[in-house]
Amino acid sequence: MADDRLLFDYLLRLGDSPLVLAQRLGEWVGKGPIVEEDMALTNVGLDLIGQARLWLSYAGEVEARFAPAPRDEDQLAFLRDAGAFRNLLIVEQPNGNFADTIARQFLFDAWHLLALRGLSASRDSRIAEIAAKAAKEASYHVERSGDWIVRLGDGTEESHAKMQAALDGLWMYTGEMFAPDTTELALIDAGIACDLRLLAAPWRAHVDAWFAAATLKVPGEVWMQGGGGRGGKQGIHTEHLGRLLAEMQFLQRAYPGAQW
Amino acid sequence: MVFTPEQEALIAAQERAAAERVAPRPALEAIWHALEAIPDPEIPVVSIVGLGIVRGVEWELADPSVLVVRVTPTYSGCPATELIMSAIREALAGVGVARLRLETRLAPAWTTDWIAPEARQKLRDYGIAPPGSGRPTGVDVAGISPLRRAAVTVPCPRCGSLNTTLVSQFGSTACKAQYRCADCLEPFDYFKPH
Fold first, then answer.
1. In the predicted model, what is the mean pLDDT of residues A51-67?
2. Chain B residues with CB inside 8 Å of A210's CB?
3. Among A78, A189, B21, B132, which one is least packed by beta carbons within 10 Å?
């Protein structure tokens, strides 16, 4: 039996990435480039919120096994500060223009689907159940973001330039997706976590194929932010997360326990 | 009339027992019937039973006065889930279920395969192309990357034309994609296979 503290930390990683990305996608409400896209952005966000709730509820139950005052999904989402968040750095990056949003989504979606497929074989049956459910949703996210990469990359001169710039800017945040730290290594050994090292090759094959179809250039080997065990998964974030949380958590901070 | 404390205690105990006495349980058939009458909040032509959301109904073994209804949500973030839960509570209270436990089951995950054949026809009549009505196209997108499904052509639920195009992978709800028919010129929703 793996340590519950490690499992709790791992569940926060699984839940925080979809939670933070959903909040970012929610910022697009009413501002999408076309109405269909406005709805698609928020529908993807809705899927991610639902998944985050499942992960964070489970995290709260695991926390109850060792902590005197365990938290529920809402307390975990709304009352933790940035340093306690365990999401990937890429999902907290600002929306920027539509190409930036799509690039972030594309790079995350492919990783997310692969990770969820891996997790659906977890020895922890609750993790396996949530992952199997979420993987079905993520497969549609992968389709949508891939289509946009091709449409914008192989579109006009301007859309191509914006898409390439967006991918070049975000590429350095993809390193930590495939770099397990000691928490993950322990849980991989226990058969609970998904082995991130095995995701790198299929992810790269997907990215390469889609970039080629989109006439985009895969960014060169660059230094990876957070890849050395000091990144989002360890609670060391970019400046953007704090501002995102300020908006997301405002209501519960100002009116503790408010409901409607 | 004045009662002694002993008598008062006895009367109170009898009243409690009467209140707690289990009302006659409605038949499971009547319960299913009530559930079948609950429309899906977002696609009101089909019931939550037809959609395959209600997975099981049974009296609890340990306490047979408690009805257990197992529900499997369609999408993790489906905002209709809470509404469906309260509709179930209301409908079952209406047929005399006094004690109810709603159980959310994640596994096996909900799939559009569970949508009943009659419900599929109702979806089509309502203007929503039912899941699985798509046919493979010549282009094999899945061949480019194993993360992709093969592309499909979805027939228009109004005129049956195959001359349709995908507008957006996400429509009015997370479970539907938006299409356009190039023949009858109508937009329509496609209930995505899941």
1. 96
2. 144-145
3. B21
